[in-house]
C-alpha cells in the first residue's frame, strides 16, 4: 500500500531529541515512516505509541514489542495514553498532511484527479462526508468555508453556484463538482484553485482545525518537563495555530503578565522554522508547503 515518503524525516525526529528509554507518541502514523525512524533511535526499554484514525493505516502496523498502534483520532491522545497507563511522555511528533495513499485511492474522494463520490473522510466510519457539506450546507456556510479554509476571493460566487445547481441535481461526484466550478476559476489556474477548494472541504469534513486545537491543548499536560513537540503543518491556518500555541500557550491574544511584567508560557521554541530543501521537494512534491516547528516543554 503506497504511503508518502515521510516529509522532513530526519529533521522532525532529530527535533524529538530521542532518549533510548523514553516514551514517544507519533500522532499521525500513516505509512509509519516517522515511527520507524523513532524506533531506530529507541533502546529496548523505550516505548512508542502511534495514532491513526484511518483503518487503512493499520495495514502498516510495525511488529515491534516497543510499539503500540491506536486506531483513533489524535484529538483523544490523552484519554488513550491513560488507557495504556501513560500519563506523561518525552516527545510528540505530528505530521498533519494527507497521505499519498489517501490522495491516490480514487474512491476516497480526496483528489481532483479522479471521478469519485464526494467523501474525503479520514475516518471512514464518521458521519459527515464531502457530499453533505456540498449538498446540505447553506450558502452562507459554504461561503465562509471557502473564505476561511481556501482564502478564495470569489467564495460568494462559488457558494451561490453550488446552491443553485443542487436545487435541480444533487452534486454527487468530484467530476460534477469540477465541471460546475471550473468555469468560475482563473484560466490556467483551475487545477490549483480546485485543489484549494478540495482542501477547504476536507478540513471541514475532518474538523481539522478543531482537532488540532484540542490536541495542542493536551500537549502541555502530556509532555514531561524538557519533553519535545515536533510538528509539521501544510497550510497557513495550521501553522499559525502551532506557532501561536508554542509562543504563548494560546491561539489568540497574549498571555497574562504577573505584577512584574513576566509571562508564564508552557513551551520554549527550539531553533527556527524548518522547511524542506530543494532536493527533498524535487523528490517529493508534496513536501513543498511543509513547515516544521519544534518546542520544548518548560
TrEMBL record:
Its main location: cytoplasm. GO terms for cellular component: cytoplasm. InterPro entries: RsmH (IPR002903), SAM-dep_MeTrfase_MraW_recog (IPR023397), SAM-dependent_MTases_sf (IPR029063). The keyword Repressor does not apply. It catalyses: cytidine(1402) in 16S rRNA + S-adenosyl-L-methionine = N(4)-methylcytidine(1402) in 16S rRNA + S-adenosyl-L-homocysteine + H(+). SUPFAM superfamilies: Putative methyltransferase TM0872, insert domain, S-adenosyl-L-methionine-dependent methyltransferases. Its EC number is 2.1.1.199. S-adenosyl-L-methionine binds at residues 32-34, 52, 74, 95, 102. HAMAP family: 16SrRNA_methyltr_H (MF_01007). Specifically methylates the N4 position of cytidine in position 1402 (C1402) of 16S rRNA. Belongs to the methyltransferase superfamily. RsmH family. This is Ribosomal RNA small subunit methyltransferase H. It comes from Christiangramia crocea.
